[in-house]
C-alpha cells in the first residue's frame, strides 16, 4: 500500500474531529474523499500530509511512518493543495509555480534544467502557460486555483492531496483537472463535493460523516440511494451511463 492510516484520531479541545479513521490506498490510484460540510475531510487531509499530528494512530507512506520522515523528505514527496490557499505577495505566476521546487533544491545548487522542466510541464498541465508572466494579483479565482495546482505538480510529488480542487473552476476546467489527476498516475486523495465527478474520476471513495468513516469501496459500491439519504439527506435516482452511472437528484 502506498498510503496507510490506522485508527487516526484528531481532537480540538474536547471535540473529536477525525474519529478513528483507517484507510489504505494502492499506489497510483485516486481516492475520492466525500462527506458533508464539516465532516472532517480537510482535517484528515492535513493529518495525512503531515501538517497536523494525530492524537492517536499512525500514518505510513510505503511502509514508513511519517513521524520518522524528515520535513524535507516529506515535502519532496507529498503535495497538499489546500482550500482557500492564499498567496498575498505580488509575484508572477511563474514564480508562484517555481516555489513548488523549493523542497528539491539545495542552497548550493542553482536553478537547474530539471527545475525549469518541472515548472514548464506543470504550467502546461493546468493550461496556464500563457499566463506565466502575468501578476498573481490580477488572476481570477479559478486561474489562481489552477496556479496553486501547478505549484503542487511542479513539486513532482509521489502523493498528491487536493482539497476541493474544482472549487472556483468552470465546468471545462473542473473536468480537465479531474481528468488530469486521474491520468497522472500519482497516489492521490481528492476531497470533492460533486458526487458525479467522484464517480467518474475516482478509483475508490471514502465517505466521512461526523469525522467517522461510513463507507469505503468503489464508486458503485459506495454511492447508493441509501447512503446518500443517510449521509447527505438527499433523494436520488441512478441512471446508467457510459462511465458507469449518473446520480440524478430529486427536487
Ligand atoms: N483548528 C480547528 N479548530 C477548531 N475546530 C476545527 C479546526 N479545524 C477544523 N475544525 C472543525 O472540525 C470540523 C471539520 O472541519 P473540516 O474543515 O475538516 O471539514 P470538511 O469536511 O473539510 O468541511 P467542508 O466540506 O465544509 O470543507 C468542523 O466542524 C470545523 O469547524
From TrEMBL:
Protein family membership: Belongs to the ABC transporter superfamily.
Organism, scientific name: Thalassospira profundimaris
UniProt keyword ATP-binding present: yes
Molecular functions (GO terms): ATP binding; ATP hydrolysis activity
InterPro entries documented for this protein: AAA+_ATPase (IPR003593), ABC_transporter-like_ATP-bd (IPR003439), P-loop_NTPase (IPR027417)
Lineage: Bacteria, Pseudomonadati, Pseudomonadota, Alphaproteobacteria, Rhodospirillales
SMART domains, sorted: AAA (SM00382)
Origin superkingdom: Bacteria
SUPFAM superfamilies: P-loop containing nucleoside triphosphate hydrolases
Pfam families the record matches: ABC_tran (PF00005)
Keywords: ATP-binding, Nucleotide-binding, Transport
PROSITE patterns recorded: ABC_TRANSPORTER_2
Protein name: Histidinol phosphatase
Domain ABC transporter: start-end pairs: 3-235
